[in-house]
Amino acid sequence: MNKSELIHKLAMDADIPLEEAYDVVNVLIETLTNAMLEGRRIEIRGFGSFQLKQYKGYLGKNPKTGEKISVSPKILPCFRAGKELKDLVNS
Is this prediction's pTM over 0.90? Predict the structure, then answer.
């Protein structure tokens, strides 16, 4: 499901205008993004949690040439599914 499909599904299920569903989805995404940029962990019970994970730099290898390269440290967003979601998927 992509963002457009999510907006249409929300509009149909909640019986709200498409423009209102668009605003709701955008506010939700913006709120989650801003919380992560502030370094906050987001937990939605029954669904999962989002947080930033720091990775250290390391010495890697270019798979095509075999040349050694330095990979910079980085911070990436991570999602961890909650127990209820895992159980639903595996039932």
Answer: no
